[in-house]
Structure formats: C-alpha cells, structure tokens
Amino acid sequence: MQASRRNALLFALVWVVAGFLFYQADSFWGIVCSALLCIWSLIVALPLLDGTWRFKVGLAVCAFLGSCLVLYPTADSMADGKLHCPAWLRDKGRVDFGIVKGLDLQGGMRLVYTVEVEEAIRDKRDHFADEMRQELATSLGIHSGDGLLNHDEMLKLDAKVHVATPETALIRVSFTDPSDMGKLDERFQKKFVTELSQTKGPGANEMTFKIRAEAESQLRERAVAQARDTVLKRVDELGLREAAVTARDEDIIVEVPGQDQKAFDDIKEIIRKTARLEFKMVDDEADFFGKIKDETLPEGEGISIFQESAPIGPGKTMTGHFARMTKHEGESSQDCLKRFKAWAATLHVPDDHQVGYEALNEYDQDTGKTTDDGWRTFYLYSRAEVTGDYITDAQVGQDQQAGMGTYFVSISFSPAGAQRFEEVTGANIKRRFAIILDDVIDSAPVINGKIGGGQARITMGSGDPEQQVANARKLELVLRSGALPAPITPSNESLIGPTLGRDAIGKGVTGMVVGASLVLVFMVLYYRKSGFVADLAVLFNLLLQMSILAALSATMTLPGIAGLALTIGMSVDANVLINERIREELRAGRNIRSAVEAGYDKAFSSILDGHVTVFISGLILAQYGSGPVKGFAVTLIFGIISSLFTGVFCTRLVFDYWVRGAKVKRLSVGAEF
Predict the structure, then answer these.
(1) What is the reported pTM?
(2) The domains spanning 279-483 and 501-673 adopt the same CATH topology
C-alpha cells in the first residue's frame, strides 16, 4: 500500500515537472523531452509485470515516439508540406534541422573559385627576403644571429644594404659600399641556391635573385592543393553537408547539395574568406603621412590628414600623422575602402613598407546599431613578424570586463609560433603591433611587455551582440580550418541538377526497397511470429537511423541509402542468431522461459563482435573518407548503434512479455515449434 502511494506521488510529481518544462520550453528539444517524460512516467505506472520491464518498455516507446517527432519536419518537407507540420512547433520550437538530399539525388549549387597563385609566390619571395636580411645583418656584424632583428638593427642594416622585391619572383640586394658584396659568400649562396637562381647586376653593387621555374611550378601546385584542402575543411566544419570539392588547373570547384539560398550564402561567405592572419609592426617613426600633409589632396574624396601621438620605444613618443577617408552618403564600407586603396596606390610607398587600413565605427548605445564612418591608415613594415600558419586552435570568448556583448576570438600558437611571438614582442616593447586579418587591420595595440604563453585575441569590436557572435563563429571556423595559402576569387556560380539521372535514382531506391522487403518477408515465413517481431525491430532501427540523421542535418546520398540497406541486413542477422539460439535451446528440452534467456545470452557475444568490427570499419571510413564515402560511413555507424538497441534490447521486451506476461505455452520461432 505504501509502495503504491509512493509511486502515485512520484507519478504526480513527474507530470507536474514535465508540464512545467513543456510550458517553459522555447526549443523543439525542450518540447520533445517534456512530452516524452510524461509518456514514460505513464508507462512506468501501468500494472504490468515488474518495474524493471516497465522502465525498459517506457524507454523503447519514448525512443520510438521521439524518433517520429524528430523526423516529422523532414517528412513534411520531403512530402512538399502535405503532412502539415504544425506552425506553432516550427515557430516556437525553432525547427532548423532535417535531412537534406545530396547532389546525386537533388542537385545543388556549383561554385568556381580561382586561386591567386601569384600571391603565394610573393609570400615565398618575401620569406626569402626576410631570411636574407637576417643573414646579411649577421655577416655585417649588426646582429648576433640569435633571435629576430629589432627596429634599430633594421635601420642600421638598411643603411648598408637594401633588400628590395621589385617583381613577383625577384629579390634585389643592393649594397651601399660595393666592397660589402663579398658578404654574399659561398655559405650565403648555398643556403638559397636550391630554389633561387642569381645573376649580378643590373648595378655594380647589386645582385638579383629569382625563384627558379621548377620551384615556382611547385609553389603553384601546392597553393592550389592547399586551397582545395582548406575549402573542404571549412565546408565539412559546417556540418555533414557532403560537398564535392575538386581542383582543376588553378580553379577550385565546390558543389554543395540543397536548395536553401540562405545556406548557400553562408557557405559562400565562409569559403571566400581567406583568413590570412598577420602581425606586423607599425613604423611610427617614419611619419609617412606627415610628409604629404601639405600636398594637395583630391577634392570630393573625403580624405583628410590627422595628427596623433604614438609610442616609439620605452619612454619615447612621437607626433605623427595618418590619413582618413570618410564614407559618402549611401556608400558601402567596401566601396569606400576600394577608393581609399586606389588613392594610396598613387603614393610612393617603399617596397619594404605598406599602408594598412582600419575601419572606423561608431556604436549608438540607444539604438544598438553600429555605423561605419570610414577608414584610417597605418604605415606598416611589409614583413609579417608572425602569421596564422602558427595557429593551432581558435575559440570564441566574451570579455566580461568590457561589458556584455563584447566578443573576441582567442587564438593559440604552436610552440614555434609562441616562441616567435614572444621574441617579437620582447624586441619591440612600447611600439604598436598591427593585427591584420585579410588585409584589414583589426587593431593596433601597444606592446607593453614581452608576451609569452602563445595566446592572442582578435576582438569583434562593438555593436550588435548577435552579429558579433555570428562573426566570431565564422572567424573561429575559418581560423581552425586554416588560412588559405592565397586569396581566391569567385569566377563562376550556377545551379546544377542531380548528378545521377532520375532513372538511376529510381532504380537505386527500388533496389533497396525490394531487397529489404524480400528479407522481411523471408523472416516472417521462416520464423513466424518471431520473424514478425524481428521485422518490427528492423523497421524501428530504420526509423531511429533516419531521426538521428535528421537531428544532425545530415545529407542523404545514394551511398547513404546503401548504408541503410546494409544496416537492415545487420539487424536481421542479429535476430537470426537469437532465434536460432532459442530454437537450439528448445530442441535441448528447456522450457520456454529458460530457452529465451539462454538464447539471448549465448547470441549476444556473437552479435556484439560482428557489430563492433563493422563499427570500427565505419569509423575508419568516416575519418579518412570524404563526400559520399563519409556519408556511407556515418549512416553505417548510427545504424550499428541503433541495431543493437532494437535487435537485442527491444525484441527481448516482447519475448519477456510472451513468457512472463502472456505465459504462452508454445513459442512461435519456426515451423517445427
């Protein structure tokens, strides 16, 4: 009696909690969980067999109903809205998941990008130029050879020898004193002879180095291959969309399945983002724009020269100048930047320096909106002290001290990158350090001391918190997947139809349906009622797989359908082993209850071994495969997991009810029983 009261109180408490959760739920998953909690508590309270059996039945029923609910939006979309998924569920539940047909089944979008391989060659050229400066500074006694060149050492070196990069693959070394030409000794030349050819001139005190043709070809091929791999990683990071990414000459071809234009726009934005992260020193001592402040500036362009005070070393500051361009009314920020760059291109900037640009934004706290006011300049050394190649991880964070809604992306460097970052900051204390992402300066903080630990951050600025979070997530994704070795530009975009013909798709689906149907019919004919239970378990397994794929917004392809067919066979095989074991025990003279228990116990080890081996194969395919192969593997993995649940756990509940609840005298496991 006391136990009944306790169960009744527990039942009432569960319903109250579930009802409250259902009322408060603001997502699809909250609604589903609260509803299933009510159903599970109702089943547990039924006066059938023991509490353990009811608990298991409640779990199986909730899994079935939950799968139906999760799959409902997908079924509605695939049925062209004929199933009428309730609007309140879509709106309140924020249903934004479902199975998407793959390229081979429904087509999608094809994007073609051209890799600007010349930029990759220039990067390699600049890398060689930096190494030459380091070697020459050591040979001339300006630098000890340990660590990086600091600002003062760079000035001393430039007074004796100038390393210029006049063309894409050329490096020209010019000595002030012709007698210093001997510093280009045999050791110096051996270091670069593999990838660089050298010729004397054009001046008597000059030596010209050029990247060899074979090395240049390898750079081009490597840039395209790395760009393809990076784009593929970025698309894969978006989820299980089985995009096909291929390379042809200097083009990257991306084929994305689906029909959602918004999703296509997000993918295009992430693909084209170079994620080229560089840390460069600001040359405030040169006061480049101070030298042109008295020149006539173009009228109507909104360009002005402003004055500012900047640190140039410990205890030293200098009054310098920078240029600023104000946006025209109705002009976009990017168009304004293009005009600014076009004007800066008319200035005579030395090849070892460059002009950097930072956006000027104004945040209105009353409206919560950010207004783009224009751009300002920084005069930078063109050499990147640290690059994104050293990044090992990136994570979104929120700056609590700066107030709510201020987000940043924290980046971690490799050990080599951390050491270089520490050396650079230690050699440039009280100077400004520009953080540049895709040729735009994110910020230019002052280095207050040597920074160790291999950590840095990129701020999202001020403005709409939701927009900050969205931008931070995209930046995190592209930094973690790696920067592109060179910028890519879109050259073509088109919608494509299914890669398989309608007849091929129909035959593939028909083959799966016919094959699965024959297996199910055989099970009923051979094992009678036990075969029918096995068939229900197989169909339940299929439902579970589809619901898991829908929850993960997976892409269904024809290989994925093959994976479903294979797991149907695995699930049937498990039930065949169980039924045959039960038949053996019955032949041995055991009673029905003992035969069922022994049959499941003896068959389980064989079932588990078979499922584990296939599971391992699926993991290997998922790890190293891509596109359709990965889709097949993912479907197979989830099918193996759900097969164990339905083929062993769920069917056992039916057999337990037969032998303990219904107390059948004869177990239907074949014609002879």
Answers:
(1) 0.57
(2) no
Write out pLDDT tens, residues 195-232. Answer: 899 888 787 888 999 999 998 998 899 888 888 888 88
**Contacts of 398 by beta carbon, 8 Å cutoff, 6+ apart:** 404, 406, 407, 408
SS (H, E, C) 177-240: CHHHHHHCCHHHHHHHCCCEEEEECCCCCEEEEEECHHHHHHHHHHHHHHHHHHHHHHHHHCCC
Confidence of residue 240 (pLDDT cuts 50, 70, 90): very low
Give pLDDT, residue 1.
45
**Fold of the domain built from segment(s) 501-673:** Multidrug efflux transporter AcrB transmembrane fold (1.20.1640)
**DSSP code of residue 390:** G
- Structure-block tokens of residue 199: 């010729």
Q: Where are the domains of the chain?
A: 1-96, 117-215, 279-483, 501-673
Question: What pairing do the DSSP bridges indicate for beta strands 100-101 and 555-556?
Answer: parallel
What is the 3-class SS of 494-556, one letter each residue?
A: EEECCCCCHHHHHHHHHHHHHHHHHHHHHHHHHHHHHHHHHHHHHHHHHHHHHHHHHHCCCEE
CB-CB contact of 340 with 440 (8 Å): no
Tell me how far apart the alpha carbons of residues 383 and 554 are, in angstroms, rounded to a whole number: 44
**Rounded to 10 degrees, what is the CA torsion of 449, 455, 459, 465?**
-140
Q: How many CA atoms lie within 13 A of 35 on its CB side?
A: 18
In sequence order, the β-bridge partners of residue 642 are none
Residue 631 above 80 pLDDT? no
Multiple choice CATH, 279-483, 3.30.1360.200, 3.30.230.10, 3.40.50.720, 3.10.20.600: 3.30.1360.200
pLDDT tens across 132-152, in order?
A: 888 888 888 888 877 777 778
- Grouping H, G, I as helix, E, B as strand and the rest as coil, residue 350 is coil
Q: What is the total residue count of the chain?
A: 673
Strand, coil or helix: 357 = strand
